[in-house]
Amino acid sequence: MSDSELKKTSLFDAHVASGARMVPFGGWDMPVQYPAGIIAESRAVREGSGIFDVSHMGRIEFTGPGAVAFLDTVLSAHVAELKPGRSKYHMICNQEGGIIDDAIVYRLEEDRCLLVVNAANAKADLSWITPKAEAFGGVVWKDITAETGMIALQGPKSVELADSLSGVSASGIRRFRIGEINVAGVPCLAARTGYTGEDGFELMPAGDDLEELWNALKEAGSAECGLGARDVLRLEAGLMLHGNDMTVDNNPYEAGLGWTIKLEKPDYIPGVALGRIAASETPRTIAGFRMKGRAIPRQGMDILQGGKPVGEVTSGTHSPTLDADIGMGYVPRQLADVGTEIQIDVRGRHVEAEIVELPFYKRS
Amino acid sequence: MNPENLKYSKEHEWARVEGSTVVVGITQFAAEQLGDVVYVDLPEAGSDIEQFGKFGEIESVKTVSDLFSPVGGKIVEVNDSVKDSPEKVNEDTYGEGWLLKIEISDPGQLDALMDAAGYESLTAE
Hints:
The complex is a heterodimer of chains A (about 375) and B (about 120).
Chain A: H1 12-17, E1 21-25, E2 28-33, H2 38-47, E3 50-53, E4 58-63, H3 67-74, E5 86-93, E6 99-109, E7 112-117, H4 122-136, E8 140-143, E9 151-154, H5 158-166, E10 178-183, E11 186-191, E12 200-205, H6 210-219, E13 223-225, H7 227-236, H8 271-278, E14 284-291, E15 302-305, E16 308-319, E17 324-332, E18 341-346, E19 349-356
Parallel strand pairs in A: 3-13
Antiparallel strand pairs in A: 1-2, 3-9, 4-7, 4-8, 5-6, 6-7, 9-12, 10-11, 11-12, 14-17, 14-19, 15-16, 15-18, 16-17, 18-19
Helix pairs in contact in A: 2-7, 3-4
Chain B: E1 7-8, E2 13-18, E3 21-26, H1 28-34, E4 37-41, E5 48-49, E6 54-60, E7 64-68, E8 73-78, H2 81-84, H3 87-91, E9 100-104, H4 116-124
Antiparallel strand pairs in B: 1-2, 2-3, 3-9, 4-6, 5-8, 6-7, 8-9
């Protein structure tokens, strides 16, 4: 895809003016880092608060008397059991149980839901879901990505900061819930969710108000953070990235995401296939590892044991929070126990590593 | 932003001539492209290096890159302090972030390098 075909969020000019380095990501031109750099941005989120432009993420609204019943046929969450104002992290799986995407569904009202999906998968999600919605009936869907924006405000100080800009209404929204509040005078949907392992919000204003909200959060002291820091933070928190740690060729059970699958509901399209996979242990599983030697594991590197390849790294980074090199990848189940010694093939060098528990980092 | 008194290679390394010794490092442009440097792998002092030969690796949170020497000769000193404090490469790449000192085998090699203006136009592309 050439740069001219890349989509831009309405904060694009603001990012460039801040000195951000822009990179293509999921069909969008997005900031990977600001001049402060990935390590400083990650630290801001672990110790204070940081803001991320995540307007590239797909936002699709489903309304109508059939909306909830329909979503229960395609999403792995049990949406009918969600009370309005609550959300669920879940998988969108194909007929065979392969993971098309991971997503969050917010039940906004009795008959209105918001689905937030990965930018890179939005097209695949829509082409899987929308023909089924039309056939199901009673549900209207609308892609509201372009007309809205989304800012993730994350970090231990983010609730206090959001409260100071919202007349203390932000903290009234509890974990995994969503509400409509004004932040710095900007009306937005505020969800107490995120992708960093910290407390915080994902704020969804109208697209036209995005820059006003961004500037207000920045002026209140939140640090601008790019996709580089986002990747470090989510990996430290043991959160999977679709496209890296799971693809359509993986099922949720081997990806350690079986807990997001609700099979006890009627007419769930991948239900039969997933039920079959769930009945026995998958031969491979995702595992986290920590390097013993100094080397950063990267996606695609071989995981070895006794010189023989046993798997592949799906994500890896240097963790500034832990001051360690960490990664994830699929290994045969018998090699996934904590403490198992493995090696990573780092450009021909076999560097010692050890299977450790996920997440790597848990907030206190 | 690139000092006038240095020579530059296409591989984004700089060379500063101090008599028969040449101090080598990576450019500001390269440091910015890499982002936060986490590891710098450098050779031992005493070894020989060819002009434009690979002498090590530099790795940031995001990516890894080979290091190529702008001049050839004998490596007489290695900046071990950047191994422990790799952030020096980001903070002061033309000063404390230097990497090698090389006893240049043939000063004529310097002609194959660019001046600051030439390097500027390379990175402006």
